[in-house]
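## retry 2 of 3
previous attempt timed out at serialization; input unchanged, resubmitting
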Amino acid sequence: MARYDLKTAAKTLTREVLHLRPATMWRYAEVLPSCEPVSLGEGMTPVLHARRLGKSFGLENLYIKDEGLNPTGSFKARGLSAAVSRAKDLGAKALATPTAGNAGGALAAYAAQAGIPSVIVMPADTPLANEMECRAFGADVRKLDGLISDCGKYVAENKEKNGWFEVTTLKEPYRIEGKKTMAYELWEQFDGKLPDVIIYPTGGGVGMIGMWKGFQEMEAMGWIGRERPRMVTVQSAGCAPIVAAFEKGETSAPMWPNAATIASGLRVPKAIGDFLILQAIRESKGTAVDASDEDILATTKELAAKEGIFAAPEGGATVVAARKLAEKGWIKPNDVVVLFNTGCGYKYTEAWQKALKAH
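## retry succeeded, writing output
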């Protein structure tokens, strides 16, 4: 992972200075790659108080951080902005990644902005909107029968002979650096405090890993103490390796067989950083929850109808988790809870067709 001189960073990275900086993730320049940013305006997404939704299951302080309002419609913009910035700085000639959907679109967009060719390898049944945007950005799109793990193997086997710089999750350090800015933003948006609970939809899990790193850096700079939000992973019942490993007390998660879910971003049968995700959950006294596709579709529609947020199914999964945990008393009525909607619903037309027909 990337490291910084945090004592030096703390001298210039202050709340007073942040108010004067541009409303993008690059406002945290002292703790990001020290190169010219390849940026489309990513970051500083809103935190919305979901009053009606929260009231429906007894939570007064329920918030949604809407990452679907990033460039290319998902939180992946953050990681790929940082990764492409650093890759360009290092002189990369072509960039490649496997994708379950949104990462491919983000890489293609930032590679286009940087003037670097990109290769996107995706499962054949990836949502059409994701394929279309990659092609629109000029990417070389390659579709395979199989899962994202098969696409990852394809990139690994072909990168050397083709001269590709691999930006697969956790195969380079800078995607985490972009994702960690979500933690910094929460601190700003809650006036120098952190929420009690963060519920995060977890496929590859880099968002959670990144935020955990961000909290560590913030503590080192004196922004916060040792307190941390309780970190909650939510996965689809059709692909829940982290949930299963957490429940069994394991430190890593085996490959999930026959992974299948309407939430394409959660269809990751084996997360490379599984041990880091599990560590963050346990150290924060958090938990892991699964959600059926039926419940995901229903709550995604509920989120739209009650709060005006047209979310990705992954975002709907966090609502399922919040309701389950509130009903069990694990989340208290006065807890400040942040759900992450990681993507925009407009990119999931197939899933939304099913949701609207069913409900």
